[in-house]
């Protein structure tokens, strides 16, 4: 090999190394998640702040019952990033598969107290606090990590429809079945992700995007 060819080869090999080194020293990766559901006015137009930023939907106030029988409101989730699932304890295998996947979320973020899980029954007549306690225990749900909620049926319907825009779980002003959808909510009460809870790849995406959201908050400090 001639000296010229050796020099060219050396430069070609050196350039990517230098680029990677530059990125490692000076570069910074910027990842962020989209925010779902812009707020609309009475005419159906997207609302904006005085600064021209889009106003996004926020989860509304609610009041339900925890599996311990205590009043549980949105205030309990202040400062938390949380995953929400609407379900029933007597749901079919697909629904139980989602609960099993939520165990993975609990285990993955065991040491992240700001990450929570909220499971809300759509069958409050049958899913009493005692029933929810037994169901939670069967999945090893941690009391300060994974909340199970019941309560007034119309309040749950309102939250499912107007808060989470739950597809396929509400019909004719009544709740009819559980949902396969999981929803990721940020610390400001905005929806940052929607996932198919029976799809393992979607669960992996959820885990990744929770980490992205946590990283996003860490960079604000």
CATH class of the largest domain: Alpha Beta
Number of beta-strand segments: 9
Helix content: 25-40%
Q: Tell me the count of domains.
A: 2
Keywords:
221 residues; Glutaredoxin; 2 domains; seven-stranded mixed beta sheet; two-stranded antiparallel sheet; globular
Q: Can you put this structure into words, describing what you see?
A:
With 221 residues, this protein is α+β, with helices and mostly antiparallel strands. The protein folds into two domains: 1-30; 63-218, Glutaredoxin, CATH 3.40.30. Helix content is 36%, strand content 19%. It is built from five helices and nine strands. It has helices at 3-26, 93-108, 129-138, 153-163, 200-218; strands at residues 63-66, 71-73, 81-87, 115-121, 146-150, 170-171, 174-175, 181-185, 191-196. The strands form two sheets. It has a seven-stranded mixed β-sheet with strand order 2-1-5-4-3-8-9. A two-stranded antiparallel ribbon has the order 6-7. The longest helix has 24 residues, at 3-26. The relative contact order is 0.16.
Topology summary:
Elements: H1 3-26, E1 63-66, E2 71-73, E3 81-87, H2 93-108, E4 115-121, H3 129-138, E5 146-150, H4 153-163, E6 170-171, E7 174-175, E8 181-185, E9 191-196, H5 200-218
Parallel strand pairs: 3-4, 4-5
Antiparallel strand pairs: 1-2, 1-5, 3-8, 6-7, 8-9
Structure in a nutshell:
The protein has helices at residues 3-26, 93-108, 129-138, 153-163, 200-218, and strands at 63-66, 71-73, 81-87, 115-121, 146-150, 170-171, 174-175, 181-185, 191-196. It starts with a helix and ends with a helix.
């Amino acid at each position: 090999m001639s000296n010229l060819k050796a020099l060219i080869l050396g430069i070609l090999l050196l350039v990517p190394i230098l680029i990677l080194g530059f990125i490692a020293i000076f570069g910074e990766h910027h990842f962020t998640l989209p925010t779902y559901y812009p707020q609309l006015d009475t005419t159906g137009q997207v609302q904006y702040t005085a600064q021209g930023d889009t106003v996004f939907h926020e989860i509304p106030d609610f009041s339900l019952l925890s599996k311990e029988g205590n009043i549980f409101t949105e205030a309990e989730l202040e400062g938390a990033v949380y995953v929400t699932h609407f379900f029933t304890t007597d749901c079919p295998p697909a629904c139980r598969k989602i609960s099993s996947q939520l165990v993975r979320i609990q285990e993955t973020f065991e040491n992240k107290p700001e990450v929570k899980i909220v499971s809300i029954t759509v069958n409050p007549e049958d899913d009493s606090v005692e029933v929810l306690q037994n169901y939670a225990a069967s999945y090893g749900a941690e009391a300060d990590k994974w909340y199970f909620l019941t309560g007034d049926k119309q309040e749950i319907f309102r939250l499912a429809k107007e808060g989470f825009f739950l597809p396929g779980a509400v019909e004719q002003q009544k709740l009819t079945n559980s949902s396969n959808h999981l929803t990721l909510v940020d610390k400001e009460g905005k929806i940052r992700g929607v996932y198919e809870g029976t799809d393992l790849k979607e669960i992996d995406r959820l885990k990744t995007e929770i980490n992205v959201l946590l990283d996003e908050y860490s960079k604000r400090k």
